[in-house]
Each structure stands twice: as structure tokens, then as C-alpha cells.
Batch of 3 targets.
Target 1
Amino acid sequence: MKTRLCLVDVTLWCFVLYLTWHVPFIEMRVDDLEQPALKYREQPPASTEKPEPPKQELKHGKCFHMPRSRCPPEGVKCTRVDPVSVFCCDVDSFRLKEALAIVMTQNTTNLHVLNANIEELDVSQAVFRRLSSMAFTDGNIGKIVGQFPKHSPIACLNISNNNLTSAKLQPPIQRPYAYLFNLTMLDASANNLTEFPLSLVHSNRKISVDFSGNNYLPCKHFQKAMETNNSSLVTFVNYERTFCALDLRFNWFKDVQIVQIDHLRVQKELNASCRNIKPANINCTCVPERLELLGDEVTNLVAVDCSQRHLKEMPTDLPPNTVKLNVSYNNITSLQPVSDDPSYEHLRQLIVDYNDIVNIVELEGTKFIDNFMYFSISHNKLKTIHTYVLSNKFDMTGIYTTFSIGGNYIHCDCNTEKVLKPWLLENFKNIPDYKSLECEGGGAVAELLEADVCHSPRDWTDYIYYVIGLEVLVLVLLVAKVSYDYWVFKSAGYLPWPANKMPRLPCDWLCE
């Protein structure tokens, strides 16, 4: 019995010595999938303090990146490049998960996965939690799901050349990048994106983005990113090689032109030219209206808003290539500058509603009349519409030209009913509010009646038809009387009255 106890004691002491010797060299893992038992341990209270991300210096603003020549040997999918960096090559979802469980430690902050064929990349995995540089390049990712954890330390994210589309990059329901508060570099180049991820650049920190190779990102999305208050904090990497899709529309024609994004940086210059508009200090608003391809050059077209500025005359010295001007709700009385000022040369849309303009004669023969697509002069003080100013305009441009004149009370006379009313009815497709053009005395111009407005003093010519009718009647009666007398004379041998009272004439022998 004592011998057995001694053997047990010796065995226990040997086991204790073994543990004492080997435990310090056991490496602890942090992956939740590798240690599922951690889920059942008692968790300490969650800290409300924002954890400090590891300070990983990124060289030249690029994520940790390794060439294919440094891929692990055959049979090994991931390898540790240095104490904080892991490099994987040619993996699928299962092999990547398996390999990362082996090589990733709590000290790993850099990860580059080359040529990953993954249907769903779940960025919420715990294995990515401590990364400051994360790169998945030159592969094929079906879509990105999940969400980066709160206060993620990721400072550089590289998802270039993965055949990603906008739907795959940023699903409409999920928000994978909501908590990337430390992100300073995003490389999404060489994909097939069609939407600019504005949520990644609308922040109060400096961020560099690379969207080169995504030629079908709409130019208007780049404009929004550049027009924000923090646009100076956004830097476009590979700026000269970044292009966008320019949506060209003119009337029924639609096309897409690929242009370099440098054409979009015009707002600063536009603001400067906007301040030069006269009268001075009226604080008009100038914004890019659209881009237009003229020959081989892309021109930035401008929209100017000078409404509600208490103007008494049309503004002058508009920014170059102004195509739209809104001067509604002012006290303007004349449109003469449209004819005289060269800055109106490219104007296509003019809105002068709620002013004091009395006619449009000053626009006769101007380039604006020849080229305008929208002209609204409703609720002014027009007394007549000089249709000859717009002669043949609607015949040449068809339904793509709009002329708005509602809310005006003009002087109506017979000429209005004879000329203006038919003109309105003929061009009703181009004048959508033609029924709102009214006479000073009430009633719509389109409903004028000739009897109500066409009145003139009568003279003898007004009775000419009656005179002619009477002469015809007398002639008919005369012919009938002569015929009757002739018949009586032949049948009875005498002439009825008054023929028998008439003296004989030298020519009577012709009838005997």
C-alpha cells in the first residue's frame, strides 16, 4: 500500500515539474473560433473608453503589401513575414479561415491576402479585430458582409482588383465601414464600382482614396465629395489616372463620356468669378450645373441664382459658361442686358418670374432667343406678347423648348383674338401654362371670342351685300315681267299694262 502511495506521489510531482517547465512557452491565441470556450467565461464589464489603436506607421500611405514572389511555399497558405505581419496567397474561404487560425496572434497588425477567391468576406470576424493594415488584392470577392467592430484600429484598407461592384462593396442594408474612424487610406482601385462610397470620406479627418481603374464612377459623385466643407481633407491618390463617367444629355440624346476628374475641380474658381457679378455685393449663388463635351474639351457649365436680391436690373458680368440664371422675386423692369452683355452668350435657361417686366421686345434677334431651352417670365406685368420675337422658335426645337407666361394680365383686343390666341393654341405643348395667360378685364386669352373683342364703326360698305341682293331681285322681276308681257301679246294679241302705255321705239320692228 505504501509503495503505491509513493508511486502516485512521484507521478504527481513529475507532472507538476513538467507543467512548470513548459507553461511559460505556451503561446496564447485570440481568435474566438480557435478558443470557443472563451465565450462561456465570465466577461469583465465593457469599457466605455475608446481603445487606443496600435501605432503602425504606413510607408508612403500604402497598406502592408507583399509581392507574389514572397508567397509561402506550396502546401502552406499563410506565413508570418515578421512578428506583426502575415502574408497569404491563393486561398478560398475555408483555407483562409484555417490558416489564419494558426498564424495570427494578438500582436499581428498587418495582413495581406493575395488572390483570394471568397464568396463572402465577413469583416466582423475577430481575427481582423486588431489589424491596422488590411489588404485583400488581386482576387475575386463575391461581396463584403458584416461590419468592422467599433473603434477598429484599421488605418489602411486595400481592396483593389477584386472585381467588386458597388453592390458588393457596400450592401444597401449593411454598413461595413460605419466604425472605421481611424481610416486614413482606402485603396479600391481596379474594380468595377459604379457608386462613390461618400460615407467613407465625409468625416473630419484627412483621408487618401484611390479609385483609379473604376472608370464608371459617376462624375457627380466626385463633385459631391469635392464640394463638401471638408473637401480639402480628401486626397485622391493616382489623381492623373482617376477617371469618372460623364453623363451627357442633350434633348433626347444620352451618352457617357469618360473624363479625368481634374475637370471637376472648378468650384473655387467659380466662387471667385461669382463675386464679380454686378451690381456688387448681391451675393448670388453659383454652382456647377453640369459638364458638357465641346469638341475634345470638357466644359463646366454654371447655374447662377440671384433670386430675392432686391434687384432693379438684370445682373451683368456673369461667370463664364453660365447656362442658367434665376432672377425671380426682384423688381427688374428690363431684359436689355440679355442682348447687350456678352456673359449671356451661353444662356439656355432664364427664370425671371415675379418681376415688373412689361415686354420681351428687347430679346428680338438675341442668341438667347435662338438657343434657349427654358424661359419663364410668369407673374410679371406683360401687356402683350410679341409673337414675332419667337418666330419659328418652337418649330425648330420641338417639345424640348418651354416658354412659361402664366400669371400675366395682358391687354386684349381683336388682334389678340386673331393673332395671339391661335399662336397659343398652336404651340400649347411648348407653353404648358398658356391657359393661365389672362386678359386685364378677366378671362383666359385662350378662350377669347371674336364677338367680344372685335368691334368697329359701320359705314355704307357694311350694307353692300344688301344692295347687291336688291339689284338681283329687281333684275329677276324685270325679266319675269317682260316674259309675261311677251306671252300675253302672242296669245291674246295685246300688250298688258304698262307695256301698252309705252311709246313705240324705232327698234320695235325687230320684235314684230
Target 2
Amino acid sequence: MEVDQYTNVSSEWSYSGEGSRLPLIDESSALGTQAPKDRLIAVLDQVEMRVERLRRDTVRIEEERDSLLSTLDSVKHSELLSDITECDKEDITRYADRILARAMTVEVAVRTDRDPQQEEALHQVNLYIDQLVMSVHEDAVIAHTRCQTYMNACTSQPDPGSGTDKNFESAILGCTLDDQKRVKKRLQGLLDYFAKLNVTTCS
């Protein structure tokens, strides 16, 4: 079977840079100095490294998308809207909605293998956070305080000014490590959003 041949450098494959395609094997070429098993393992090592980098890049894109959506939401609910005319407010809203529609066409996801218990734990965590998000416009101060208690459950150095939500802590500890990291970043994004709104926690 003959496959794409790259520049020969002491073997039948080579790597030409960070953004290059991975090499493919030409089974008709000379065996070279490495045993066939070692050569195949070397390629698999490279593939595994690139897969992990792809997962990291996808997670970063997910986080960037969430950040953009949070910013759009903060614009649509900004107090500055009360200082402009209704006509200008409609222009701003239409502009934000147009960007939001474009943003929603981007779908990225990194799948994490979970057992049934971990799936249930993540479901519970998502329910807690979804309820938190829905409560923001009802009482931002209480929502901010609750968000901080959730964040305290995700860190070894909690904010001394607020407590820890034990129910959320129990749920997050049942999640995979990847999910725990992702949830922590999501909560940090919400805390950053509250900071933009100049919302403080309950005393």
C-alpha cells in the first residue's frame, strides 16, 4: 500500500513543523534502522500528542465562545442603555442579536468518557449552574453570592468572605477531573461577568 511520501530524513517519514500534517506510512519503503513495531509506536506517540493538543485547543475555543456570549448578554442588559434614546437602544439590541445569531452557529465540544455516576453528578452540577444563571436578573447580588459558594467548592483556597455550598461540593466531587476543570472555568467566567456588572456578594 503506497501512501503520501514526505521528505526522507533517515526514515520514511518526517515532521516539518508545528502546523504540518502528520506523516503517513509507506509500507513499500525500506525498513530503515528501527524495528517495524518501534516505527509504528513512534507514529502513534505523535498522533496521541496531537489529539491531546486538539482537545486543549477545542476547550479553549469553547471557553472563548462562552466568554463572547457572556459579553453580549452584559451589553444587552447594561445600565448604559438607560442613558440613550429608544431608537439608539433598538439599534444596539439589533446589533447584539445579529452577533449572537452568528455566535450560535459555532458548535464545538470535547467529549469526556464518564460512567453513569459521573454522568449523574455532572447533570446535577449543570442544573445548579443553570438555576444560578436564570436567577441573575432576579437578584444579581444573591446570584453572585451563590456563584462564589459554588466556586469555593471547586478550590483548595476558598474565598474566606463566603461559605461553601455543600450540595454543590458533593456533586462536583463526583465529576471527572476534566469536568471539574471545565466547571471551575465556567464559574470563573460567571464571576467575571458579575464583576463587569459591579455586583458584590451579600455581606
Target 3
Amino acid sequence: MSEVNVAKKKEKCENCTKQCNKKQNDEGANAQQEGEEVSEGPQVLLSACLSCDGCLSEEESLKISQQSLEEVERVLENNKKCDVSKHKVLVASVCPQSLPFFAVKFGVDISDSALKLCGFLKSLGVQYVFDTTLAAGFSILESQKEFIQRYRRRHHDSHALPMFTSSCPGWIRYSERVLGSLVTPHICTARSPQQIMGCLVKDYFSKQQKLSPDQLYHVVVAPCFDKKLEAVREEFCNSLLDSRDVDCVLTSGEIYHLMEQKKVSVEDLDSVPLDPVLGEAGEAALVRHEGRGSEGFLEHVFKHAAKELFGLEVHEITYKTLRNRDFQEVTLERDGETLLQFAAIYGFRNIQTLVHRMRKGRVPYQLVEVLSCPGGCLSGRGQAESEAGGRVDKALVQQMEDSYSSLPVRLPEVNPALQTLYQDWLQGHDSPQASTLLHTQYRNQGQVHAQPPHMQW
């Protein structure tokens, strides 16, 4: 994160950090002696708690500070100066939810925006530019398989259901640091698309190029600042080679800001096709997965479970809006009996409701797709904030949703590249290699074991 963004974030969260328990312990006595009011009782909104960096360790803060444009430019400059044998091969992976942002900003359709963005990145010195949809396909397929396994052991495993999706790092951080064992055993172990893409680049692609992982510098372009936190997780780092699966996450807004700094116009950019991961010749066609602008985990798992568990083909999914547009559920029924009940819950206010029900044992869902940003991934604060800052630009989000929905849908089950990689890279669907590279574990983190008493519900 750039120094400017860090400073803005600290300023925005200053009132919240004054109220957090950690800071109260350090400063409360002094504040009372000086006559300042020290707040008591439930004060801090969950979203404010999560946006505060007060609980970051020094090591985490250092790693996140390296997730910046300055760090990428440093690597590019080193490539110009150092011996060729010490060059880093730069690889960029673009999340499909970032492309609508560039389509709107460039005033072109989403396919052309991918060509222009690729042209810009390669003009900087990036050698390969991939689309992360392939990695998302792995994540969806592994999530589908895990849900079926959890459903079949639900009667003798109290942690099997509900299953919570695991692709949102804001949700994961909150679960590990605040909710602990209430939630973490329920989180799907499939890695997020970003981190599977990291494995694809640093394991599969590096071997194809006859390079070691530390010879690659992997940048991900994402809609969300929280993806920077995910990239620096300990389990996604090869300590022996001092190499992370994802070296740097840059938001769509940061890339666009760089274009403005360099005074690059859309007309100046070459249209360059994205590189296919498998190295096939020709232009890689852009596709999306089902869903409302995220990766569609709910829809894919719902349709798969209906067929696998009950022999029912579901072609269209009907969402029922409950509290608001970001709290919706879908139901599978047969002869008046409810067979499956899933929910999509976006935004921290709705997540608070979910957790409140979880504590009371009143969650009727077998699967919940959880995302911390209201509206889902397209509304990530790394691309959807208004130019004034602080608020989501609703008109921009609507334009991005329209652009994203124009992409054709392709089911991961019918993607031949995925099947090839399962065999050639992972040695089969259920191999130890697949389990290691496509899954991870979420854990209670020691510094926080329960919901802090100052948390507002």
C-alpha cells in the first residue's frame, strides 16, 4: 500500500483506534488524568475495527508496505541495472473483477480493456500477463467437492455445516482474529483464486520456463486492498527460497493512478492479447463464472450439489432478498420439502447479523457466500471509491456490473485447460499435490480469542 493510502487510512481510523481495547489499556489512564473522555460500552463498528491497522505486527506492516507501486518500480529498475542472470521475470495476473473498472475508465468494452491493460503492463517491462479466471475455476471445483464431503458427514461432524466461502480476505481476517473456533472450522479450505494463481505461476509456470520461483516476480491486479493482507500470509511463502506465491498486489485504482502519473492515454496504448497459462498460441478468450460480479461460488456449488446429491438439474437460480440486496438466499425444493438453503451475505452489517445468528445456533443455511464489501468484489475499495474518497461511487459500480455481465459464462467443469492441469500439474483430482497446492487451513490467531466487548453489533 502506498504511503499516501496508509496515511489516509490511519487518519480515517484514528477515532476507532482510540477506542480499541489495546489502545485503551495503553492510553486510558493518561487520558482520564488529562480530563479526556474515555468511551465505554459498545462503540466500534465491525467495519471500523477491521480497517484499523493497530493489530498488525511490525512484520506484517513491513510486508504490506512492500505491496506498492514503488516496490514494483524498484524491481523494474533493478532489471535495467543488474546482471542479466539476476533479472526477475515479471508476471502480472489480472482479476476479472478489475477489468470492468478499466473498461469504464477507458470507455471501451471489457475485452478491449483487457488488451489495453495488457499493453500498458508490458510497456512497463512485465513479460507475461495472465487472467485469473483459470485459478478461480480450480477454487470453485475444489469448493464444490468439499461441500459434498461436508454435507455427507453433517450428521456426525458438528463443524461440517454451514460451510463458509473462503475467497474474501477481509472475512477471513475477521474470522481468525475475532470469531475464532465459532467460525474457522466451517470455512472452506479451498484456496482463493488469487493464491491458486500464485501456485500456478510460482510452481507450474516457473517449471515450464525452467526458472526457480524466486526468479519470478508475481504481481496481482485486484479490486480490493485486503488482497494485500492475503498475499503476505505465512503459508503462502516459500521461506527456503524467500519467495511468496504473490509478491505484490496492486489495486485497479493504483494501476490507473500510475497511468495518470505517466500521462498515458488509451489511444497511446497498444492492444496486446493476454498470455494463456498453458502457452497455447492465439488470443485467450475472456469468460466469467456465474454470479453477481464476484466468482459465483454460491451458484456453482448450488447447481453442483443439486445434481450430485439429489439428481436435480438447476438451470436458473432465483434469489430471495431478505434484509437488503446484500442479504439474499436461494432454496432448492422438491414436493414441498426444502432440500438446500444457501445465502449470499455481503458487507459487514449483514455479516454481523450472520454471526449473531451463528452464536445462537440459528443459521438455517448449508452454505454461505461471505464477502466483506457490500455489492461484492466489483465494489472493492481499491476501485469503487468516489474520487472524493470514503464513499462508493454507485454510478461507477453500476457501469462495472453492466460491463462484467457482458462476458460469456463458461462452467469450470467444461474448461479443458483445467482438466489438463489437473493431470499434468497436479497428478490427478484427488492427489496429495492437489490437496497441498489447492487448499489451506484457517486457524484461531492467538492475540484474539473472542469477540471484543467494545464491538458493536
